[in-house]
Specification:
The chain has helices at 16-24, 49-52, 113-116, 181-215; strands spanning 3-10, 27-33, 39-44, 59-64, 69-79, 86-93, 100-109, 120-122, 127-132, 141-144, 153-155, 165-166, 173-178. The chain is of the alpha+beta class and 216 residues long. The strands form 3 sheets. A 6-stranded mixed β-barrel has the order 1-3-2-6-5-4. The protein has a 4-stranded mixed β-sheet with strand order 10-7-9-12, with no helix packed on it. Strands 8-13-11 form a 3-stranded antiparallel β-sheet, with no helix packed on it.
């Protein structure tokens, strides 16, 4: 999984007054959990633009003044109720041998024949909760929909791998092609045409048969 570097400074003083002063200076107070003890730090709000304001998911490399460096994931974000500015972020420290859980986006590839034929694509689960060691966390989960016909579904079970665990029931539907009213009408018309062709063929064969017997 790709990582975004966040450069910040340790917070020697914590509390409401110090936190307010940081926010007034355009900085975001943060806390890193998961290690031996919490690490309090702050960073410029612009440092988080590529980490937070994106549909993708990234890990964070936190570089603090003094040389301290941590790998982490975002655990919780607090936004201002009026301005939507970031007012606080909690991070969780990553370790190479310790599995973590993260919501990973699902990416669809290809064009579904069922949709081309009038079906409707339903994509109810655009993110899946995945558990893995940091080195095995995927940037996204790919699903090839190029063979999905009307009525076909993709279940969690078919997405399982040895690299990570998907924390959802195996029978949960991730994406499917449902029947649309237009598709039903088309199918009925096609069936009607096939039926008419079958009746015409039967009549033609019936007319040829007596002629053959007469010749014999």
């Amino acid at each position: 999984m790709k990582s975004i570097t966040i450069k910040g400074s340790k917070r020697e003083i914590v509390g409401k007054v110090a936190t307010k002063a940081l926010r007034n200076a355009g900085k975001v107070p943060c806390v890193l959990y998961g290690g031996e003890k919490p690490v309090h730090f702050s960073a410029e709000e612009l440092e988080f633009r590529h980490l937070i304001y994106t549909p993708n998911v990234y890990t964070a490399t936190i570089e603090l003044e003094g040389g301290d460096k941590f790998n982490a994931i975002v655990q919780d974000i607090q936004f201002h109720p009026v301005t939507d500015k970031i007012i606080h972020i909690d991070f969780y420290q990553l370790f190479d041998d310790k599995a973590v859980s993260l919501n990973i986006p699902v990416k669809l590839e290809g064009s579904a024949p069922g949709v081309i034929n009038g079906g409707v694509l339903r994509f109810p689960n655009r993110r899946l909760r995945v558990k893995a060691i940091p080195g095995n966390l995927p940037d996204f989960i790919n699903i090839d929909i190029s063979k999905l016909k009307i009525g076909d579904k993709v279940f969690v079970e078919s997405l399982m791998t040895d690299e990570y665990e998907i924390l959802h029931p195996e029978d949960m539907v991730v994406v499917q092609v449902r029947t649309a009213r237009a598709a039903i009408v088309v199918d009925e018309e096609e069936e009607g045409e096939e039926g008419e062709e079958g009746e015409e063929g039967a009549t033609a064969e019936g007319e040829d048969a007596p002629a053959t017997e007469g010749e014999a």
